[in-house]
Amino acid sequence: xxxxxxxxxxxxxxxxxxxxxxxxxxxxxxxxxxxxxxxxxxxxxxxxxxxxxxxxxxxxxxxxxxxxxxxxxxxxxxxxxxxxxxxxxxxxxxxxxxxxxxxxxxxxxxxxxxxxxxxxxxxxxxxxxxxxxxxxxxxxxxxxxxxxxxxxxxxxxxxxxxxxxxxxxxxxxxxxxxxxxxxxxxxxxxxxxxxxxxxxxxxxxxxxxxxxxxxxxxxxxxxxxxxxxxxxxxxxxxxxxxxxxxxxxxxxxxxxxxxxxxxxxxxxxxxxxxxxxxxxxxxxxxxxxxxxxxxxxxxxxxxxxxxxxxxxxxxxxxxxxxxxxxxxxxxxxxxxxxxxxxxxxxxxxxxxxxxxxxxxxxxxxxxxxxxxxxxxxxxxx
Length: 381
Fold this sequence. Notes:
By secondary structure, the protein is α/β, with parallel strands linked by helices. It folds into 2 domains: 4-67, no CATH class; 72-350, TIM Barrel, CATH 3.20.20. The protein contains 11 helices and 16 strands. The protein has helices at 9-19, 25-40, 60-67, 154-165, 185-196, 215-224, 239-245, 254-268, 286-296, 322-336, 376-380; strands spanning 4-5, 68-69, 74-80, 86-92, 98-107, 112-113, 116-117, 122-127, 131-133, 148-151, 170-175, 207-211, 229-233, 272-278, 301-307, 339-342. The strands form 4 sheets. A 10-stranded mixed β-sheet has the order 3-4-5-8-11-12-13-14-15-16. Strands 1-2 form a two-stranded parallel sheet. Helix 10 (322-336) links the parallel strand 15 and strand 16 (339-342). Helix 4 (154-165) crosses helix 5 (185-196) and helix 6 (215-224) packs parallel to helix 8. The N and C termini lie far apart (45 Å). 46% of the residues are buried. GO terms for molecular function: 4 iron, 4 sulfur cluster binding; metal ion binding; RNA methyltransferase activity. Keywords: 4Fe-4S, Cytoplasm, Iron, Iron-sulfur, Metal-binding, Methyltransferase, S-adenosyl-L-methionine, Transferase.
């Protein structure tokens, strides 16, 4: 039987409880493993010297050796974009499958809040995968072309943060990588709870979970993960267009999705991020902007317009012109007073941009110093 990740929190807690070991020691183990990883940039999947972890009860050591690994995944490859702000991580899982995660570097001082310069400085956002492949089948997304392979365990999700932390100081996490996070709900909740506790201590307000609109999961999301941001991949203002480009939308009708979001916002009192990929001639006309404005005008939302990222022969969609994108934004802002941003394109050359994540192993790597941009999340919140 394969050893589990030490970051599979539920399994570790259960094993400790069965052995009569206080669960307060678990964060201490995580802290040791994380500090070891940061200091050595070590592939921890090969590290099994549990006896080096200090100050544990004697019964903990044989249990750790027999049940758990410091990491079940390895950082296979790292690819730096020529934009000098994006790094893609290719991570090999214990079962031989691969997932991708993307580090995006920003400078919060470049944004404005209430017309004033923002405080802060350089930091990084990590885009995390929750599944190998995806069963949603969105026609504009490369991951959907893989089909669905398997869910990640909570430990495999957290290990992406451990690997990325060796390369950058991660402040924000977005679940916008491979997979539909709410289709792996239990592991998602467990992973976020680990990330917001010691030793990672990420703020829930700086974690965003994206979904195509799994309504039954949205209804319990705030109760399980209070203060975590919800982003909805809407991509069309009417049901028939959604079904054309997002086959899974047939199972989650737009009317029921909006009802679920209304209930979520009433309970959480939080803004909702709306993701909208602009596809030339499909959903980017002025009429679509007005339909979207009318759909969202009763909500507290931030609409994030995303110019389509080409995915080679996997799609026949075209990228909307800059003029169309700006006009779309002006309608939402001017007519409906909806806060609307345009996502900066990052990492296209390493297939690390939005919608481009599909497991492949590029032939070369680029290097360069990391420049900075204003982070879309900081501009929006």
